Sequence to fold (775 residues):
Amino acid sequence: MLRRPNLYTSYAAEMQMLPTSTKKVVGAMFVIVLFLMPFSLPVINQLPFIRFLGDSEWLRPMSTVLVFAVAALGLNLLTGMAGQVSLGHAFFMGVGAYTAAVIGGAGEGSLWGLGLPIWIWLPAAGIGAALVGVIVSPVAVRLRGLYLAIVTLGLVFIGIHLGNTSWGRKIAGDPGLGRDFPDLDIRIWKETDPLVDMSNDGTWLWFDVTEAQKVYLFLAVVLLVFILVAKNLARTRTGRALQAIRDRDIAAEVMGVAEFRYKTTAFALSSFFAGVAGALFASLVGKLPASQWNLALSVEFIAILLIGGVGTITGAVLGTFFVLLLPNLVEDFTEWLSGRTDQPGIGGGIADAILTEGPGDVGAISTSTQSPGWQLSVFDWNLVLYGVLIIVFLIFEPLGLYGIWAKIRNYWKRWPFSY
Amino acid sequence: MIATISRRRAAISTGTVVFVLALVALGVFVVVQLVRDPSLLLQTLMKSLALGSVYAILALGFVLIFKATQTVNFSQGALAMCGALFLSFLVADEHIPFTTIDNPLMNVGGPSWLPWFLSLIVALAFAALLGLVVERVAIRPMIGEPLFAVAVITLGLEIVLRVFATDSVKSQFRSLEVPWGTDSFELGGATINWSYIAVMIAAAIAFVAVFFFYRSRLGIAMRAVARDQEAGMAQGINIGLVFAIAWGAGSVLAALGGIFATQPPVKQTGAVEPDTALVAFRALPAVILGGLDSVQGALIGGLLIGGAEIFAGQYLSGYTDQLGAGYPLVVPYVAMIIGLLVRPYGLFGTPEIRRV
Fold:
């Protein structure tokens, strides 16, 4: 007998974390793939296209994706759920990163740093960013729409400048080079032997794991925790209040939702996510100047949300994978092309048409620095592609990747009827 | 009997108090500086008016596009840089780019400033064309879509246009070869750059042109659309045309702003550099302070923000160590946030009416 997935017989059934069996299967697969990804498994690493799963070169970008997904979930709370467009996410990430640096980093010379372990600096990064979010929110809560977007954009510029002041330098280090951020080793106290050593290869349970695999697995656990938190928030009173404010703020107030309080909560929660992600990202990179927490980073998160699908947790995670891994794919593609220039066959023809390798050559992507005009480097092409992708997605698929999935799902749900 | 609706209002609002206090403080400051060093005050004033004019021109572009399409055009900076580049191609290149055909504007003859002004007009025309193309390709399909989506599309445009523009000046800055150069003149002991005067004239022309345009038939149509898009359409106004004109005009203003953003007081080099596009992000506070949908707001917001930046840069320079090098560049954002604390819709912006 056919089941009716949309028929819920109780409220609890509808509000489950994964209400349908499809979602349960997909969710379980996501968790399994997430944890198997860093390992080179005997059968899977022979399959085409997902060959990169066990590849050590892909572990760094993948780890970054996991961290960015945490930040994207945070922005999703504020922009997707509460409807407050913020271009200041990079600022809150930076606040988190420098809170972590002061509490967990090594203090040397004029730099401030207490050198405390990760179980203190990671929550502190989130709390520090959340506090700044609460401080900013009285201004932000009064503003609506694009006024809010531009004020939060101003925060980014002010934040970068603060890193340049005389006391800012004690926190952020040299404006050009930045400062060292704490590493991910889990210790009981400052200088004790690490309980979990993240900076060397080693053995976990019965498996040999490299340093990069350890970091990846740790970040995967962090991401899962934050996905659970975000998912649960959406199902609680707070989540429903935020969605009511997004859909019609004045109606929400009439229903008894305290607008000011819940918007402040949204800012604090979103900043908490951003702060933790910022600290982890800085720790992953190791050394960053203050100017890295810039508008481009904020825009990246807006792009992630829009390409993934605003207001959905699946969308935020999917979008992060898509937006962050695309440049790597493009790079690989260019590398593949450059091996094929001046060779017979279709592959060589395409490569000749796209790549420019010398002054006399004509082609869109340039691999030589000598070529004049608008023959862009691979890095620049990545940027262009990213910009075009934002535009194309918004014009043709405003609901993002999640929207594409929803369309496919709805088609098959009703098949063979069209509606 | 007519029932009178009485609204409870405080006799003196907080905004008025802040405004009066600010005026008093400003008055004291001006008197003190007049006594101390009047020529420095005059020079700073002229400089701040010039910077304010650059911001006002860019802000006017934001406002025109906002009034028509209800979104902030975040690609204004990239459009400004493209416009300045067009001019640079026309005045500095002997050949039309990517060809070997001679640049006809180089050999016009007549007085030496004539080819430059012809080039300026052609460059502005190209900028308008770029605006029209961008509008047709990326903005027109979004009529009726959420405003946030359109704003983010312009962010995408900013990335794309800026990559191309930055790439052309990455290895070598491109000079604009303005006829007045970097010359300056003396006035009451103050050194005043000719480009200050030029940008003020340009801003005056731009604002007068928009003032008269808004009184023409098409301008009235545009203002009607700004009030209510659907009502405008019901009256038979061609929304597509309104969008196109707004983007064309906005792009021309951006180009004009971009051209003056390469000159003093913004930059001393007189050349298009990779960070030319950033000037539009500094003009955003001017738009917000003046009010997103107000033409006079753009002018006053621009002058206020420009004034704040230059005066802070001049008279607080003793505290550079505490404030951090380059602090004048963030003064606009601080001024914007303070302004918005007092008036959430800017000085002249229309408050959004919230209906249940």
